[in-house]
Write a structure and sequence with these properties.
Layout lengths: L1 H10 L1 H4 L2 H18 L8 H18 L8 H9 L4 H16 L4
Helix pairs in contact: 1-3, 3-4, 4-5, 5-6
Length: about 100
Amino acid sequence: MVRWQKELYSTIPQLKQLQASAFVLNESQEFIADFGKRERGLDRYPELMRELLKSFHETAEALEKTSVRPEREIDQIENHLHSLNSLEKAHRDYLLKLQSLSK
């Protein structure tokens, strides 16, 4: 999910131009690198999502004038920080919503 998130925020023009994008990309890359070195595991995934919530809300605000409205998915991320499976599903739903910008 984090690799997909990084790809979306670095390739989709509406996301790439956002001020929040740099933070999302940096945190995503750091998580991916640490995960690869086994310095972070899935137990740290909720922490990453918590750190990115402000950026996700900024993303939603910036997309208000488009047909993509990820507020519900962001709320689901926030509501499921204590359940890894539900959190992953909420994050996936958020990324699917963002991916629709590329169509």
